[in-house]
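Shipment paperwork, digital attachment
Item: protein structure file
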Amino acid sequence: MESTIRKLFDSRNRKFEIPSYQRAYSWEDVQINQFIEDLQNAENQYYLGHYLFETKDENTLCVIDGQQRLTTCIIFFSVLKRVFEKRLIDGENSNFEINIEKHRTDINDYYLKDFRDKTQKFKTVHDDNNFFIDEIIEGKVNHTHVLDTISKIRIRTAKEVFEKEFSKATTEKLIKWYQLIENANITEYVVKDKTQATQVFAFQNDRGKKLSNLEIIKAYFMLQIYLSSSSPEKIEEDIRYLEIEISQIYRKIVRIKINEDEVLNYYWRTISGKGFNSEEVIKGIKEKITSLTTEKGAWIKEFVSGLSQAFNSVEKIETSSENNVQDLLYLNSMALAYPFIIKAYKYVDDEKLLNRFVKLLENITFRYLLRGGRAEIQSRLNHYLVNFNSAEDIDKIINEIIHNLKTNEWWWYWSDNEIDRYLSDYFYKNRVDNYLLWKYELYISNANHPKPHNISFAELINHESIEHIAPQTPTNGDPVENGYGIYEDKNNQNEGIVSGNWLNRLGNLMLISQSHNSSIGNKPFSDKLASYGRDNLLNQQKEIIKFVSDKSNPIWDKQAIEKRQIKMIKAANVIWNLDNI
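Attachment content:
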């Protein structure tokens, strides 16, 4: 049915709710700015799309599709109301003064609060709604709510983008925009029961719209339940089960950092029977459903319940205070680890065993990233992922993988010998260069040098950069005169810092603050040495003097770089020693 936003809200006692199984607010400033740009370009007509509603009771509609646009409209109206109020208080003298008061009142009574009992007209998802009341409906400047979900941050961002844009617009322009939104053309479709809503939602959202894979699968599952269930009562029961599980998933989505479709992919690898060799998730799930002759609803419910637990596992990992877990996250490459972790959390309660498993995954991921993509490790790990089905399997997996890394030629690419080889060669801009220097820092810390645990790796790397002790571009003149060894040794090239390829090796690299790095640049070594460790957190700077042969006339040459590199490789052999797992 064709309508407008004003007609949609025309009954002043009509209310709207976003069910908990629908996505929380997801528009970012890009979409809000596009919304504003469309308003600026519109002349007399504006289109705001299609809306699907399910009747909850006599006066309340649940928003099944279109919640992002409708929420944005409410935020738009709320900010506009505050701007109108401020301009009235400021005594703005214009031909629109009477209209401002009328529009302010209409916004409040039509879109924000029921004019009779002053209750909320539009409710967002349950977990965000109290914040939405204070931030948007009431427009409170100071309230006690914490921005603890991505959706709350996005609501705040939308409000601020509108505030900034409205502050620059004339009252005439604001009234025009208000009227464009009120009179915006829409189509609405209201269904009276969940079964009908499921059909419409599924067909509407699996027909070429740009949705996440999770959204497509949700719609597909709803449709399959409708098509395969034996009775309306069974459809209602199964759909309700999905709604509860999906609402739990959406609560997790706004609290985790990784993309929802990544979690879906990781989970699919754990249950598809093919592990890392699984086909594309939507294709694979549809093929699985098609292959089932009975109990499609039971399989769907088991899948969604397991997926909800997978999101729980991701949140556990992201919020864990365990050192091994944090180290794994610092590597910023979870594609190998997450499928194993999702399975581990399903089968294992023993924290000690889980921690050991995570330590192995960190070790493998480090070795894999150090070497780069020259050989793929998924095929080596796939057997263990596919056949991992109980708590008893974990110890077996750990011990077999360690044994393979030590003895199996098929795993040679990630052996200890390969670690030494890659650490002994060109290392600058390796994917784990910052991480290794951080782990080395922890390794050399002892009772005399307090460990830098008061900041995290992530916080450190935000402010630190990698320093070439012997600079990439030395100062004018012979490098020896500036305290560095010979860069180009024509008689014995291996002895030169550049000719021997020592410039970008591990022994010549060090973590240092970005400001410190900029200040010392390519200054003489004696100047740099004097600045290392001065009022600085990192002990790897303070120990540089130990590798210099003549402390009274310090020279940073190939011998010093090699000496330091030998120590650092020995440290790496201890840090990633497989026997310590």
